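Hello Y.,

Per our agreement to keep a running log of every chain we model this quarter, I'm adding this entry. I've kept the format consistent with earlier entries: sequence first, then predicted structure.
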Amino acid sequence: MDFRKELIQIVEKSGSLSAWGVKHCFRVYHLSKELSTHLSLDDEVLYTAAMLHDTGKYPVYALKNIDHALRSKGVSANLLQQMMFSSVKLPIVLDAVENHMFYSEPGRSDEAVYLREADILDNMGNIGLMRLFSLVGQDELIQTPEDAIDRARLFADALPDKVVTKAGKRLAIKRREESLRFLAGIKRQTLEYAWL
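Predicted structure for the entry above:
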């Protein structure tokens, strides 16, 4: 079987919620490429890291009280070694996976930097809002629509400052504006969230 298809199957068989599943991974991969068109990133490294970066939060692999980025790194290491992945590229993939979260410093490679940027940006704007609301009742931090609204506000305020590249910063501004327009509209239409 083709290596890329195997990675897709790993995500599909992991019990992931759609907000973190294959389509999220594809968006992160393609956005990473879009943001880095001025560079020559290793496509195999980028694709592999994008597909595996959230494995540690999927039900098949998750462990309670373990940061999902660290768990994803461990799961990715095991899976990729079983798949005979390049020993030269493996540390680059693992660095990108471990450092993909907004609360982490960017990883050492360009692939890690742009994967992190894309993952942060996928939590903002229209797509980020869609993801947040799809998690209501499915995620321990987002049990109600009000929780999703609070998280959207937090992301709109905090995430743009986590982006480090010029291309990422430009997109973060646009996606922040999308989020704020949505939140203002919801506030107006629900008597300041009372009718959510």
